[in-house]
Amino acid sequence: MGDGPPTLWEWFARNWQTGRVGSISDLLGDHLLMSLVPIVAGLVLALPLGLASVRWRWLYQPTSGVFNVIYALPSLPVFMLLISVTGLSPVTVIIPLTFYAMAVLIPAVVDGLGSVPDHVRQSAVAMGFTPLRRLVQVELPIAAPVVLGGLRVVAVSSISLVSVGALIGQGGLGMLFTRAYQNPFLPPVIVGIVLIVLLALVVDGLLVLCQRLLTPWVRARGTS
Amino acid sequence: MITFDAVTKRYPDGTTAVDRLSLEAPTGEITVFVGPSGCGKTTSLRMINRMIDATEGKILLDGEPVQGIDPPTLRRGIGYVIQQAGLFPHRKIVDNVATVPFLLGWSRKKARDRAMELLERVGLDLSLAERYPFQLSGGQQQRVGVARALAADPPVLLMDEPFSAVDPVVRTSLQDELLRLQAELNKTIIFVTHDIDEAIKLGDRVAVLRVGGQLAQLAAPKTLLSEPADDFVREFLGRDRGIRRLQFVPTAGLPLRTDLTVPEGHDGTADEPWLLAVTPDDRPVGWISKDRPGQLEQFGTFLYGQDPLRSALDAALLSPSGHAVAVDETGQVAGVLTRKALDQAMMEAADG
């Protein structure tokens, strides 16, 4: 360790756990919180809305329209706008990301339920399933692969989008980028990018694992 | 017994799918609904388990109107088989079969044991039990569909074109399997098809429906072929109605000649133009013609007393001798049905 600038690894080791606010491990924790909460909340909210859109077909167009418009809004001004309501807190990042997640997941739920073959639904009715039981035991399990596919997209995009929150001081690992902006010094940027990509890969991997465990019957494409 | 009492299904747009249908499907028999598309056969079937509700009239299940029974409860007591089997892709075969027992609240073990028993019964290898539907062939899936419909031992079975999506060879074996099962189980079965041959093969009684949902004729297959009610039924039955009627004429009691069989290697010298060569244990080898003594000609056989006259005619047409070889269950020659005796039998069949 000479007098020159620290190497990437030295910088990372020194800043991982500093005991002060803003150490890399803290940022990683914030990042996880601000990306995972929207993924879970998005799914929990998209399920009933998706189900309602299937049950009452006329509801689907307006619902998906509204969420598409929200999805089209640039995240930064939305964050700014929300500051007046929720202040400079993680909630300000979590709320828009939840809406973005819903914009992807509502169609996924609708398409997933649409992927249930008609003869399968008919035979469930004919065998005496009540509507609720049919939904829980037949339709949702068959919709699961499509919904999980949407969830993977949402997971990766949420993890990546959290960093924009850095501009309002709530960006998780994204904070490493704003520091570099103030002081042209490369290691934080590289560490930030690598950690965000790693985080996305790990979460995506976990979802793929879930998919394997939950839907062992999806081995061949295009079979019913 | 299932009773249709002046049942009508009319849709809000004014189309009538079923028009004052009245008929009885007797307990323990197969009643086939057959007709061209748009004749309301599937609609009629689905009104029995209330997947569609009748607009007017009553459907009675052993005297009780189905309209008064809560649909899920009603349906759990009625087996249902559809065209693409409708298996649940996310459940293993054994759990697919155990669906209705699960719904009825049976214990997991009891339901699965019952499912295994049924898989065996419909002729499926038990190693398939732990697979998923997509790993099975169409014919196997359809067998699973039948096993699933039978799982809770319902007295009534509804079958909606169950075999029309599989190839003809598999279809024939599934039909034979159904008849074999029905001989053991004696269910009250309503079977919907657009294939008149299937209707005639499977039905104890066949209801022919015309477009607009009216009953054109309800009769046993034999009567249907010999006495079609009107031109519509006649046309629907198709061209080989005469030949198909022979399906219902028995061969028991037909006179057989037993003096035409000779041992293998016979030189063919006799007064008869054709002699049947047989092995020492009486199995047919071929016909010997008086004109070409050194040569064996093809032969056709039918199971005497069990196969219908149609099979005997087919056997006769397969051989240049024009005679049919009657065999018993062990494959031994019982005698020869000559062309002359066959002509006589067909003449009698045509009379009555």
TrEMBL record, chain A:
A single GO BP: glycine betaine transport
Membrane topology: Multi-pass membrane protein
GO cellular component: plasma membrane
CDD domains the record matches: TM_PBP2
Superkingdom as given in the UniProt entry: Bacteria
Residue ranges of domain ABC transmembrane type-1 in the record: 28-207
Key words of the record: Membrane, Transmembrane, Transmembrane helix, Transport
Presence of keyword Signal: no
Localization: Cell membrane; Membrane
InterPro entries listed in its UniProt record: ABC_transp_perm/SBD, MetI-like, MetI-like_sf
Transmembrane intervals: 32-54, 66-87, 93-113, 142-169, 189-209
Pfam family membership, one: BPD_transp_1
PANTHER family tied to this protein: GLYCINE BETAINE/L-PROLINE TRANSPORT SYSTEM PERMEASE PROTEIN PROW, OSMOPROTECTANT IMPORT PERMEASE PROTEIN OSMW
Family indicated by similarity: Belongs to the binding-protein-dependent transport system permease family.
Protein name per Swiss-Prot or TrEMBL: ABC transporter permease
Phylogenetic classification of the source organism: Bacteria, Bacillati, Actinomycetota, Actinomycetes, Streptosporangiales
TrEMBL record, chain B:
UniProt keywords, alphabetically: ATP-binding, Nucleotide-binding, Transport
Originating organism: Nonomuraea glycinis
EC number(s) stated in the UniProt entry for this protein: 7.6.2.9
Family indicated by similarity: Belongs to the ABC transporter superfamily.
GO molecular function: ABC-type quaternary ammonium compound transporting activity; ATP binding; ATP hydrolysis activity
Enzyme class: translocase
Taxonomic classification: Bacteria, Bacillati, Actinomycetota, Actinomycetes, Streptosporangiales
Highest taxon in the source lineage: Bacteria
Domain ABC transporter: 2-237
Gene3D superfamilies with a match to the protein in the record: P-loop containing nucleotide triphosphate hydrolases
Protein name: ABC-type quaternary amine transporter
